[in-house]
Write a structure and sequence with these properties.
31% helix; alpha+beta; 2 helices; 117 residues; 4-stranded antiparallel sheet; 38% strand; two-stranded antiparallel sheet
């Protein structure tokens, strides 16, 4: 089984969802998590804090530097993710469709062959 990353995208400056909308998203993603686990597709998933909480670590010629903020200044950022295992891309896209309906745009990317366990 190949592993896929389903990443949830958020856009800086987009309208903030209401408390009711957030609760609906949490309920729906909870159902999806349960279904992924029951289907044996679940590997790992989680939500992320805002990009402003990021620290970027770089090593250049043996010298390490750390800076606040995201790696790249952008309006879009990853808000959360799932790592799933599926027989093929079509199966991963079917999970992504459910995720997108629950919480917005989802990017689907397979792990490379070296990362497969």
């Amino acid at each position: 089984m190949k592993q896929y990353l389903l990443s949830v995208h958020a856009v800086k400056g987009a309208p903030t969802p209401s408390d009711e909308e957030v609760q609906t998203m949490l309920r729906e993603t909870g159902r999806i998590n349960d279904d992924m686990q029951a289907a044996g597709a679940w590997v790992f998933g989680g939500g992320l804090t805002s990009p402003g909480s990021a620290t970027v670590v770089r090593v250049d010629n043996g010298a390490t530097t750390m800076s606040d903020g995201p790696f790249a200044e952008t309006k879009e950022h990853i808000a959360g993710f799932w790592v799933i295992k599926c027989a093929d891309l079509d199966q991963a896209l079917a999970w992504a469709q459910r995720c997108a309906a629950a919480c917005g745009p989802i990017e689907v990317r397979p792990f490379d062959d070296l990362s497969q366990a």
